Amino acid sequence: MSDPAQARAQLERWVTDLSSTAEGWLGSTAGVTDDGTFIALARFESEEAAQRSSDRPEQGAWWEQMAACFTAEPEFRNSTDVDVDLAGDPDAAGFVQVMQGKVSDPERARELMNSDPTDWQEFRPDILGSVSCNHEDGEWTMAIYFTSEEEAREGEQKEMPPEMKEIMDQMDALSVGEVRYFDLKDPWLHSPA
Predict the structure, then answer these.
(1) Which domains can be identified in the chain, with CATH numbers?
(2) Which InterPro entries does the UniProt entry name for this protein (predicted)?
(3) What does the pLDDT look like over 14-23, one tens digit per residue?
(4) Which of 34, 147, 188, 189 is most exposed, with minimal Cβ within 10 Å?
């Protein structure tokens, strides 16, 4: 990313000028990591709504200006298999961690996630919510919204309950390759007014 400030200004311009006519837009999360990697997640109520937004001429004109902020070709990942889990208001997050990885058995991974008996709100009150996106071939993206980076790092140090540790061990066994982490210490969070 050549100019994070310009990218942020462009995203703000999209929210101000284009979001009101982006039918089905549910919100966005974006930011730049310490190493200059730009990450953005845009949520729409359906694939069709996202495509209609993308096809608008004003969207194309906006993207031309946004694309000038990048030093490499941006990578896009779409997903219609999305899970949202809210414990608070993600738009109040002071820190967002985006992760990308791959599992050998996506159905088993989903079963494990859905079987987790942990009261996350009690165990990790620093977590405001998460958005999980499943892609082709077992690849996935997840954004976790935290109250602050400091509280997130403190929460990471907590000892897991045995039932959660068992689920996490099984999830680790399904993991293929390394999980990539993208820390957004100054997240740009937007939702419809």
Answers:
(1) 4-77 (3.30.70.100), 81-184 (3.30.70.100)
(2) Dimeric_a/b-barrel
(3) 999 999 999 9
(4) 34
